Predict the structure.
Amino acid sequence: MGKWLRQHLQPYMIRPTVYKTFSYFLTALAFALLWDRFVNTAGLFAISYAFTTLGVFFLALAWFNYLRLDGMNLPQWTWPRIKRKPLPFADMADFIDEEVVSLEELAEEERHVCRLAASLICAIVFFTLSLL
């Protein structure tokens, strides 16, 4: 799987993958902490159970992305978009010669590869956190 992923994950796709990994991780971490704070009030379960569950969830998400890459037409749920104003200050990308590619600018197959890599990274991180 690692060789296949390195073969399909091109250098221009690293930035969208990192952004997607970061958003997946923070959303799932917030969910785990809120579950530990408000649902697990009696303290019956350790937070490692939530991390394990999220690791399994991200493995399932990675499997669905792999199936989409393989040609299966699965329904895709999207988050509602919030339009933001551009910030008034300059970005670091303004001063480099490299073209910045966002996730929306990629082809559909490349988006699935980025999401697959992000899901696998988050699964590994949450399984590691569950062992601590």
Q: What stands out?
A: The chain is about 60% helix and 0% strand.
